[in-house]
């Protein structure tokens, strides 16, 4: 679809993720990168895009929207300035370091009618896109359990939050999104073994609406990288590997028994296994395409700030549960 003019995009933060954003924006149809804000970077922006030292200078480039890829602790300050200037924003996950800060961002963008989105990139992973469609079509029947494993070495770029806010927010968001269910409560345990002030391992047991059980194991302490989502239900289980974007279905097979005492137990056995052929586009590119379309006034599937706030609320409940040793309810954000 042709657009009336090229959108002007700005980028805030030129770290590891910021450089990926710059690469994708530079190749994005209908968008031009007009400026990058990073107070320490001197090289790295594509095609001689100016690297600017402060937000005032960046706003002078008159961007239509900005991608916020700076540390999480800065999201609120930067996001509020963008909202005040009337600039739409795609904010990297997590939305904010606290639910209170996230709520202020939601209010600032919604009150001005601005488009705000959160970079929960796993929603655009081809394996999870296919999985969600199949769950919505009823291919699994009733969903019983969601189990995620997200582990690997510590990334040196993370300094301001622990593994719950940085990595586990992926699993919280994707679990609520693929199942269409809200988190009801969480119980969690964390450990810190790397000498940092924040947790680097978490184990979570959660209850979702409708009786679904979720388990999340996340850490920065493993020498191997794993990104696995297993959803078990009435007709079998789906296994999504978001590193390879593969989706596999393991079907239940009917098991008959002549043993009277066991007839009341509805057991299952291994049936057919199917690995689906899925078109695999880069999730970050799809994320940018959807946000571009939303800013251009077209209907687009984005992760709204309010959805990002809900994920921060659940993550905060996980941290509180680990601190208190109690099961913590996941309160809902203010509707507005």
From TrEMBL:
Q: Where is the Gfo/Idh/MocA-like oxidoreductase N-terminal domain?
A: 8-120
What SUPFAM superfamilies does this protein map onto?
Glyceraldehyde-3-phosphate dehydrogenase-like, C-terminal domain (SSF55347), NAD(P)-binding Rossmann-fold domains (SSF51735)
Q: Which residues form the GFO/IDH/MocA-like oxidoreductase domain?
A: 129-238
Q: Could you tell me which Pfam families the record lists for this protein?
A: GFO_IDH_MocA, GFO_IDH_MocA_C3
Q: Which residues form the signal peptide?
A: none
Q: Which InterPro entries match?
A: Gfo/Idh/MocA-like_OxRdtase_N (IPR000683), Gfo/Idh/MocA_Oxidoreductases (IPR051450), GFO_IDH_MocA-like_dom (IPR055170), NAD(P)-bd_dom_sf (IPR036291)
Q: Name one GO molecular function term.
A: nucleotide binding
Cross-referenced PANTHER family, in alphabetical order? Answer: BILIVERDIN REDUCTASE A
Full protein name: Dehydrogenase
**Species this chain originates from:** Mangrovihabitans endophyticus
